[in-house]
Predict the 3D structure of the following.
Amino acid sequence: MIRTYSASLIMAAAAAIFITGMAPNVLGAIPQVKPFDSTILPQDVINVYKSGLPFKQYISETIKHPASLQIIKLDLGNANLQCGGEVVRTNKVICYPVISFMNQTCTVGSTTSRNCEHSYIAEYLHSQKLNETQQSKFSYVFLAKSAAETHPGSPVEELLALTRGIK
């Protein structure tokens, strides 16, 4: 009787995991997330970050969508203006997210934008010793800021909390 009851609980738990979509996450598959587009709010980006999905996986899915790809191209251009050129700015609060976003995005899709051809991206990351995990976080920070610009008045408390750790 106890074994039957335990087996029923295990089956019910397995069914709940499968139905709620937790199984792909547990098994290491890409969770279903909405690609970055003009409807994404800063909190949506933060939630994707909190899900543990590496930025490179998120951006690789995002750039498969033409409208999303256009926004990412614009963001890469803006990123280049903010921290690019011959002399990379040293303002870490601005440039860590910007350069991380450029590197992570261009690593996944080197033909996404001509802004991916700049050598200063790798040089900056090497000099600042930013690892993959840090770059992933900073890339999400950059996208969340981009979403905040598209949706003024959106709550950005969690975004601000993420950026407080940049020194």
In short: The radius of gyration is 19 Å.
